[in-house]
């Protein structure tokens, strides 16, 4: 059953910073109920990529970097913001090179995910990167990022770590594992 979208009655800016533009949105639903929501303004860039770099030996290249939101060092996957109009696969290769020092001869999109659709239009492109080779590119990070190889077949051990908490990275690991298993199934058919 398809419902009509609510009618937008008003949109106003509540707050603005270097990173965020918060809007209050007044809506009227088909049943007549009027509600105010807050959201991050759409159009603040083209989204982001999150890269799952897989070495030939089955290890994933994770990165450890400081996360201001949790005020600690977190383990996760390479990621970055897409420039306006930039292809997600181009962004993925650039971020991979900047954050791990490796390029990839094979990159493929796995899925586009929303982060918090209740208040943000932001989307993250999950990309699988294979056939890695050394190809560093200077990045914009304030300190050198630590690269941590992790065996994909020890996902349980990774999830048990207190410093691996980012939901996008967790979901991406499962998507990559399934994609690689599907490739293996096709190879044996």
UniProtKB/TrEMBL annotation:
UniProt-listed InterPro entries: NUDIX_hydrolase-like_dom_sf, NUDIX_hydrolase_CS, NUDIX_hydrolase_dom
Residue intervals of the Nudix hydrolase domain: 41-172
Gene Ontology CC: one annotated term: cytosol
Pfam families: NUDIX
Biological-process GO terms, alphabetical: nucleoside phosphate metabolic process; ribose phosphate metabolic process
Cofactor(s) for this UniProt protein: Mg(2+)
GO terms for MF: ADP-sugar diphosphatase activity
Domain of life: Bacteria
UniProt keyword list: Hydrolase
PANTHER family given in the database record: ADP COMPOUNDS HYDROLASE NUDE, UDP/ADP-SUGAR PYROPHOSPHATASE
Protein name: ADP compounds hydrolase NudE
